[in-house]
Amino acid sequence: MRVLFVCLGNICRSPTAEAMFRRHLDEAGLAARVEVDSCGIGPWHVGKAPDPRARLAAAERGLDLSALRARQLAADDFARFDYLLAMDQDNLAALEAQRPAGSEAHMGLFLDFAGLQGRAVPDPYYGGDQGFEEVLDLVEAASLGLVAAVRRRLEAGS
């Protein structure tokens, strides 16, 4: 099973989601069965570490983003990943526009897994520190829901 989190530049929301989801997979005993990654739609931050504010907010909750580096969505991601989860409608529209014919990957909004259908994880980049806290709260709720969905899918395939 492979999960890819997607935001605009891969320095705030999607790396935070990647780290939070990894934590919950580990706690659920599923870390060895699920590959996790994140990327951005655009190339602006390729190779850069997550935003310092995202790293600080995550560290305050015991998450380490320091090893992550931004990358851009690649054409083969649609074949490699079972889930491509967007942080907002614009990211989802970009995924849908780039999706190759025949791709069977599940594409949708990450917050759908928190029962927040159609809602976006707001981009905290241009705001204050509270935006990074809100992102953490939202991705934690969605991560728990996604772990449950992944567990069901893995058990059905076993």
From TrEMBL:
<feature type="active site" description="Nucleophile">
    <location>
        <position position="13"/>
    </location>
</feature>
<keyword id="KW-0378">Hydrolase</keyword>
<feature type="active site" description="Proton donor">
    <location>
        <position position="123"/>
    </location>
</feature>
<dbReference type="Pfam" id="PF01451">
    <property type="entry name" value="LMWPc"/>
</dbReference>
<dbReference type="InterPro" id="IPR023485">
    <property type="entry name" value="Ptyr_pPase"/>
</dbReference>
<protein>
    <recommendedName>
        <fullName>protein-tyrosine-phosphatase</fullName>
        <ecNumber>3.1.3.48</ecNumber>
    </recommendedName>
</protein>
<dbReference type="InterPro" id="IPR017867">
    <property type="entry name" value="Tyr_phospatase_low_mol_wt"/>
</dbReference>
<dbReference type="InterPro" id="IPR036196">
    <property type="entry name" value="Ptyr_pPase_sf"/>
</dbReference>
<feature type="active site" description="Nucleophile">
    <location>
        <position position="7"/>
    </location>
</feature>
<dbReference type="GO" id="GO:0004725">
    <property type="term" value="F:protein tyrosine phosphatase activity"/>
</dbReference>
<feature type="domain" description="Phosphotyrosine protein phosphatase I">
    <location>
        <begin position="1"/>
        <end position="149"/>
    </location>
</feature>
<keyword id="KW-0904">Protein phosphatase</keyword>
<dbReference type="InterPro" id="IPR050438">
    <property type="entry name" value="LMW_PTPase"/>
</dbReference>
<comment type="similarity">
    <text>Belongs to the low molecular weight phosphotyrosine protein phosphatase family.</text>
</comment>
